[in-house]
Amino acid sequence: MEQGDPFFDWGWTTRHLDEVATKIVAHLVLTGLAVGIGLLISLALALLIIRYRWLDGPVTGITGILYTIPSLALFALLVPFWGFSLRTAEVGLVSYTLLILIRNIVAGLRGVPADVREAAVGMGYSPVQVLVRVDLPLALPVIVAGVRIATVTTIGLVTVTAIIGRDNLGQFILEGINQLFSTKIVLGAVLSIALAVAADVLLLGVQWLIAPWVRSRERPA
Amino acid sequence: MSGLLGDTAAFVGDNVGLLVQRILEHVQLSVISLVIAMLVALPVALVLGHTGRGGFLAINAANVGRALPSLALIAIALPFLGLNDRSTIFALALLGIPPILTNTYVAVREVDRDIIEAARGMGMSGAEIVRGVELPLAAPVMMSGIRTAAVQIVATATLAAVIAGGGLGRFIVDGFATRNNASVVTGAVAVALLTILTELGLGAVERAVTPRGASLTDEPAARRAPSAVPGAAKGGAQ
Hey, which residues 183-212 in chain A have their CB within 8 Å of chain B? Predict the structure, then answer.
């Protein structure tokens, strides 16, 4: 950008490894919080949808609209109320995970064969036991597939929260833009993409480990 | 937060001209990017779908696309293309390519092989089959990919403001900088509405291009395509 400036300054990078590490950790914390909270809310809503079928339409509709609203716009709508806070960032991030997670949890639970559940009931399992020991384990591969998509999406969205003052790899991108310093832009962009790819591969591994029976049949989406 | 609504209404009243200008900028950035994405993705996907080659690439394009953070894409073009609309358009077009590529490929592949055999038996050439058989039957699922891309592009165009570009994101970014919540809310609501309008408008186009009589059989196909790439075939969250 500035003439004579290298496109990527390794020297600067090695002198600022602490900062790089801090931003990576902050990025992961924001992502983990969002996916974790999103998973809890989605699990509750998915169970309600399974129990009360009529909820399916409204919940899918509302989470679908939330998913369509541009991230910066959603954060912007929350800023007047909660400022540039962690809460603003997380409420936005969590709301983007809901559509994907609820859809996969519901699909996973609905995919559990009825005769398997009946057998469990026949063996004297209580409803909670059926849920914890039959439904959830059998639905787990589809649920983890949803977690994978939600995590990769969230890692990308976290960079946007830098605009509302959250420290993470997106902060490098913004600083790089403001200082016309391409090293920071490249660091922020490449590392956030690398994090997304790493998380994707890691969760693919988890999917592979917890569901040995689908390995041969089905290539996870 | 008393008076935020009133402040916003007053802000809109004082800035009608600017609002219209920003909407036009936003639409212009989006349309140019979408057209470029279509020009790149459609021919490639039609050829791949017609020949049945490169399926792995076409199917996974949407997955890869999702891993690309929009802010990172806009920023990474910056050192090469500079602080201007070219960087934004480059990033937006790049974001639009994967859903169009994946959906078009899936759509063409899902056209009943028997129909294509029949067309070939009637003596139609490869190009004629693409134009007369595969394209019309694939249109609804293709259109759903274009809608996804369009929604994503309109949503992400908001970030153009971060690299000093135009569009509705300016109200948000400038509002943050000047602590003007009315400006922030104006930009946020306008861009949210524009995104939802894009989704609904192109949804209507999607229904319109569904061939009469094919709608019953194509409806499940249209639903199957998104689930082949969960999350990706639905727009937004950028």
Answer: 185-186, 188-190, 192-193, 196-197, 200
Note whether residue B138 is domain-resident: yes
Inform me whether the pLDDT recorded for A219 exceeds 60.
Answer: no
ipTM of the complex: 0.81
Contact list in B for residue A100 (CB cut-off 8 A) is 230-231
From residue A103, alpha-carbon distances to A49, A50, A64, A150, B189 in Å are 10, 11, 10, 11, 26
For A94, other C-beta atoms within 10 Å of its C-beta total 23
Q: Write the residue in B72, B83, B173 that is nearest to A189 by C-beta.
A: B72
Q: Looking at residue A9, what is its pLDDT?
A: 87
Q: Return the minimum-mean-pLDDT range out of A1-5, A57-61, B177-181.
A: A1-5
Total-model pTM? 0.83
CATH class label, A10-214: mainly alpha
Judged by CB atoms closer than 8 Å, whether chains meet at B67 and A189 is answered as: no
Number of domains in chain B: 1
- Contact between A68 and B169 using a beta-carbon 8 Å cutoff: no
Q: What is the spatial distance between Cα B149 and Cα A134, in angstroms, rounded to a whole number?
A: 39
Q: What is the extent of the structural domain holding B53?
A: 4-228
User: How far apart, in whole angstroms, are the C-alpha atoms of residue B209 and residue A158?
Assistant: 37
Closest among B151, B152, B169 to B160, alpha carbons compared? B169
The span from the first CA to the last CA of chain A, in angstroms, equals 39
